[in-house]
Amino acid sequence: MERTEWIDMDRIHGFRVFVAGAGALGNEVLKDLALAGFRDITVADPDTVEESNLSRCVLFRPGHIGMNKAAAVAETLPELDPDCTLTPITDRIQNLDLEGYDVYIGCLDSISARLHLNSHAMYYRIPYVDGATDAFRGKVQVVLPDGPCMECSMNGTHIRELHRTFSCIPGEEIDPVILSSGITTSSVIAAICVREVLKIACGIEDRCVRGVSYYDGMEGTMDIVSLETNPRCPNHGESV
Amino acid sequence: MTMNLKIRNSVDNSVISTEVEEGDSIGDLLLYAAEYWSNQKYAMVMKVGSRLVPPNLSVSETGLKDGDTVILVPDPQGG
Ligand SMILES: [Zn+2]
């Protein structure tokens, strides 16, 4: 990777990355971050590992069942790079001080948590790369301090689902469109997230994908949709 | 002034037609579509061409014209 012209390994090694969520997407993002050379990573997740997580989470082991997810990945990630320091936080992001990072990566499962991270990203002017998945669809949005944010495009359907958790609960009846993602969808979306973080870390955030990338795994398409700053969004202008 | 718009649901490609006022917002249109496809209980966004339009913009502010089609897209939120 060092042979890529714009890749700056010193900057990557020292970049302070905050990952919100250590579920299926978070596992893939953490794996890609470590393999890409990031060595200063903090991950927060209040949930515990369940047996059903093992089939799509590369960093969980059977012995982790019942253990906090952030603590579990902190045990196994160093296997990929012993020089990588992973700081686990077992609390909700709503209870954390989110200052002092160079980038946020959202691997969350609710709209309210995304909005929380988004508002802090805008307030502290920290770039925020958000990944999200459904069964065979996903999206990636890069929020930069002077551009449109996640809230700019949200509408009444988001408010309706604000506090819902989009995760797999065994036995629960759920619309096939929003079934938990398989490993392939998580892998694709995680790879795009980390690629965008690499651009930010190496100082070429002007090359980040603008707008929102929508991935449709059934059609095999990636649709990049432009997004404009919503003048009524509370995260912009003097109200911030 | 009123105009007719088509809303295509990208999940199953079904299409509905609706009459809107120029001053109606994209958010109104979204909620109308969400109510019509009420079995689809998840967040959605509306695409006009290759733009994701802010919900508070009016139909006329987005440049939509009589007979145009807007596309309803599921907005994933899992992780
Ligand atoms: Zn905004």
Describe the 3D structure:
With 240 residues, chain A is an alpha/beta fold. Chain A has a single domain (9-225), classed as NAD(P)-binding Rossmann-like Domain (Rossmann fold, 3-Layer(aba) Sandwich). Helix content of chain A is 27%, strand content 18%. In chain A, helix 2 (24-36) packs across helix 6 (183-201). The model of chain A has no long low-confidence stretch (mean pLDDT 92). Chain B is built from one helix and five strands; from the N terminus they run ββαβββ. Chain B has a five-stranded mixed beta sheet, covered by helices on one side. In chain B, strand 1 (2-9) and strand 2 (15-21) form a beta hairpin. Chain B is globular, with a radius of gyration of 12 Å. The complex binds zinc ion. Zinc ion binds next to loops of chain A.
Compile the SSE list and pairings.
The complex is a heterodimer of chains A (240) and B (79).
Chain A: H1 9-14, E1 16-20, H2 24-36, E2 40-44, H3 69-76, E3 85-89, E4 103-106, H4 111-124, E5 128-133, E6 137-143, H5 156-160, H6 183-201, E7 212-216, E8 221-227
Parallel strand pairs in A: 1-2, 1-4, 2-3, 4-5
Antiparallel strand pairs in A: 5-6, 6-7, 7-8
Helix pairs in contact in A: 2-6
Chain B: E1 2-9, E2 15-21, H1 26-36, E3 44-48, E4 51-52, E5 69-74
Parallel strand pairs in B: 1-5
Antiparallel strand pairs in B: 1-2, 3-4, 3-5
Pick out its properties.
heterodimer, A: 240 residues, alpha/beta, Rossmann fold, eight-stranded mixed β-sheet, 8 strands, globular, B: 79 residues, mainly beta, Ubiquitin-like (UB roll), five-stranded mixed β-sheet, binds zinc ion
